[in-house]
Amino acid sequence: MGQSINIPTSGTQCIGAYLAQPAGTPKGGIVVIQEIFGVTAHIRDLADRFADHGYTAIAPAFFDRLESGVELPYDMVGANRGKQLVAELGLERALEDVASAAESISSAGRIGTVGYCWGGTVALLAALRLGLPSVSYYGARNLPFLHETPKAPVMFHFGEKDHSITPEAVAKHREALPQMDTFTYPADHAFNRDGSPSYHEASARLALQRTLAFFDQHLAGAA
Known about the structure:
- The structure is a single chain.
- The chain has six helices and eight strands.
- Strand 3, helix 1 and strand 4 form a beta-alpha-beta unit.
- Helix 3 crosses helix 4.
- The protein is globular and about 40 Å long.
- It starts with a strand and ends with a helix.
């Protein structure tokens, strides 16, 4: 369904992105924000799924700023390399690229974001600073930013068995942003990544239902 395109960054460099278009008139646009592993087949599949639900979806390849075509394996070697890349990239540059990706699909209507793991924190920042309605899946780096005033609504999904995000950390989301929905599931980190050992089908299905309802309200239903 999708295609590879290039989008500009804040500098002179362009980065790649995976673009998936719906069959009919878009209900809005969604920037799909990767995990630390790059724009993998899983991330491209997520973009395709949002397109199936009527949204123009784009997944920017943030790592292209550092190294082109990064798709890391879902193992310890890939995770370590991914952590190095996100540390080198930084959240500020990632957020700039989210803004560029959102601008590139602005003709679709209202734009939001959805992010996973590292991307979950980037998605939170997109709501806080860019004013884009966003859904954050298991963002383990969220806590330093919860004091900021959101410019748009944000929804959180966490796994109750996720050792990288404690129940106390989840509670801090509810305390800092009580007006936002924070959901937990009987699952581990990355419970939405089908094909992985941590995938939890029932939790992933329910989280997607809530995510789509969020976007239908704040993107498709926005005046």
